[in-house]
Structure formats: C-alpha cells, structure tokens
Amino acid sequence: MQLFHLSLTNFRNYVRCELDLSRPITVLHGANAQGKTNLLEAVYLLATAQSPRARSDRELINWLASEDHPPFARLDGRVEGSDALRDVSIVLLNTGDRLQKEIRINGVKRRALDLVGQMKTVFFMPEDIDLIAGSPDARRRHLDTAISQMDRAYARALREYSRVLTQRNSLLRRLREHLGDPGQLEFWDERLLAQGSQLIATRLDTVAQLNESVQEIHSHLTGGAERLHLLYSCSLPLEGTGGLVAYRQLSVDAAPGQMTDPAGEIPTSSTVEAVFRQQLAEQQHKEIERGMTLIGPHRDDIRFLEGGVDMCTYGSRGQQRTIAISLKLAEIELIRSQTSEEPILLLDDVMSELDEERRRYLMDTVHGDQQVIVTTTDLEFFDPSFLERAVVRQIHEGRIVEPRP
C-alpha cells in the first residue's frame, strides 16, 4: 500500500501543495504550527473520509478561500494497493447553509463508504492518549474506523445501525409522550438486532485478536514490567448465556486468548442476537420511559487493564501514552494479517513523546516496503540510518521546501 502523490488546494493552511511521495519514507521537518500535521490529516482524510481533529469539515477549508464563491477545498491522492492503482479525491464545498462533500475514485463519484479501505492507514499522534483517558465514544469511533478499513461489510452495518438507531430513538421519544403504539418498535427492533449483533460479534473478535498482539508489544515497550489486557465492555450480559465468560468482568489474571467461551470460540452473531433480543424485550418499558435505546454497540466500550487496575481511569499519563502506542502497533499487525497489505504509517511528532528505547522499537516496526510519513521538529530524534532511507522535506508556513541535500 503506497500513496505516490498528494495534492492539496485550500486545505487548512495550504493554498496549494504538491507532495511527491515516491520514496517509502518521508520526513516532514519544521517548527511548530507550520502545517506538518495538516499534511498527515489530509492523508488520513483521503483514507477514511473523516478528520481525526476537526469538529466540522468547514474547519478544513483555508480561510483565504472565503474569497472564492463558494469557498472550497480539494484533496487528491494517487494510491497503489495490492490490486490496482487508483486516484482518489475529496472536494469540500461551503455553500453557506451547508457543506457538501464530494468523493471520487478514478473520476467516478462515490460514497464515503466506498472510499474507506482504498488506502489503509494507522495514525500515531500525541492526542492518542485521549483514546485511553478520554470518552467511550472516542474509543468506539477509533475501533470502528480500524475495523472498517479491513471489513467493508462492517462499515455498511455500522452505517445502517446508525440510521436505525436514530429512527428508533425518535419513535421511543414519541412513545414516551404516548403518541404511538409500542408495537411499532418491532419493525425497528429487527433491524437493530440484525446490524447491532454483527457489529458486536465483529468487535469481540477484533478485540480478542488485538489483545493477543498488544500483550507482547506492551511487555516489550515496558521491559516486561507491565502486562496489558484489552477488555471489550459490552452492554449485553453475554456472561449469563451459554456459559460465556464475563466480557464485562474478565479476570485480569486471564491468560492470553481467554476472551472466549470455554470452547475457545468468540460468540457468533446469532449468539449475540439471542441475548440482544431478550434484553430489548426486558428493557422496552425503561427505554420508553427514557426515550432512548439503552443497550447495543453504541453503549459499549474498550477498557485497558494492567495489574488489576483500569488504566483508563487510574493510569498515569506515561502509562496511557505507552498503552496508546501498543494499541496502534497491534493494529498494524492486525491489518497485515487480515488484508495482506502494509498500512501507511502516519507518525505525528511522536518521537518527542518517547524515550530512546521506545523510539527505537517504533522505528524497528517499519519494514523496507512499508510507507511511513513522519513529522518532527528535531531530526536528532532519528538514527542516521533511518534518515538515509528517507526524503526529508522542510515545511514552512504552509509551503514545502526542497529536500535537504
């Protein structure tokens, strides 16, 4: 997987930018607030159709573009995957009352769903610590994005579940005001069950695989001092059906691979659906009273346990940062195993956050045929051997300076 060229127009602080990425490693060097992170954000946007930083896509349009009528931003990339070479583009058009996002693949207009997975990425940035210390919503969103890059069926189920959830919640609010028949829920319940069960079963399987990888990675990063467990905290009582282990209360002393039932299998979608169906029936009265759906994948979470302690709540900043790095490295291994493709690594000034040993370990994960785009304020963070394999470009006030000699 490689991005050969990136072109930006009116994106963030770039009025116009053409970046050649024909070499596997590109180092973007410059002072703070010059636009290095914006370039990585553009690559991630082309890969996932969403920004990891902006609250609204309007923020992505350069303020100087207000002179255009209407203001717009455009991103273009040429990507080579295992199957083909393709051109991807995103145009953001601010019409005033709303923002239009147009996505094209090889010149043909496509949905955001069709874009995800065309270019697989793993993005390391200082804000990753919020994955551990932040809200469950951020962790769910991160997991959903990672899975969607590998599994298009999951991405479709996720989109449909969101649509059904919105409609079902609207009906629950009307029922709370005695404006309908509770029997109307049956139609939306069936659709919620079909999509939600698939999401939960896939997440359980993914977290189990990540749990296997992350334990070895985290042990190495901490010199064997810490043993990390990933826990999928499910809103459904899966532990009470069919002898399943307690996904919500997994023992912190459980051995790797024990996020399974006693037969060693992850619950299937049909197993999850049976529990989900029972819970919807039992919770119906409470959900009508509250006017919202109280169970399902939109209420689940991922927790990180070390030594019997929940690191999301009690971990130090240093511990949470190391856990975030372990999680991202585990994602790289998972994408490789699931897709047989090397994800593009986007490393945003992470070297300044790590000690020498962790920097070396992170760089050792980079294979010769893997594309890496990394930003830094100080080239001294990198071994000379790494820089010899890289193209170094200077970033200054939204402009790219020629590679250094």
Description:
- The protein folds into two domains: 2-120 and 347-401, 3-Layer(aba) Sandwich (Rossmann fold); 132-314, Up-down Bundle (Glutathione S-transferase Yfyf (Class Pi), Chain A, domain 2).
- Helix 10 (356-364) links the parallel strand 12 and strand 13.
- The strands form three sheets. It has a six-stranded antiparallel sheet.
- Helix content is 40%, strand content 22%.
- The radius of gyration is 23 Å and the shape is globular.
- With 405 residues, it is an alpha/beta fold.
- The chain has helices spanning 36-48, 112-115, 129-133, 136-150, 152-176, 185-221, 269-290, 311-314, 317-339, 356-364, 384-388, and strands at residues 2-11, 14-20, 25-29, 72-80, 85-94, 99-105, 108-110, 121-124, 228-233, 301-306, 309-310, 344-348, 372-376, 390-396, 399-401.
- The chain starts with a strand and ends with a strand.
- Helix 6 packs across helix 7 (269-290).
Poorly predicted runs are 240-264
CATH topology term of the largest domain: Glutathione S-transferase Yfyf (Class Pi), Chain A, domain 2
Rounded to an integer in angstroms, the radius of gyration calculated over CA atoms is 23 Å
N-end to C-end Cα span: 27 Å
Number of strands: 15
Share in β-strands: 15-25%
Return the CATH architecture of the largest domain: Up-down Bundle
What structural category arises from helix and sheet content? Answer: alpha/beta
User: What's the main sheet like?
Assistant: 6 strands, antiparallel
Query: How are the strands ordered across the major sheet?
Result: 2-1-4-5-6-7
Mean pLDDT: 88
CATH hierarchy, class of the largest domain: Mainly Alpha
Secondary structure: helix percent: 40-55%
**Silhouette:** globular
CATH superfamily (homologous) name of the largest domain: RecF/RecN/SMC, N-terminal domain
What oligomeric arrangement do these chains adopt? single chain
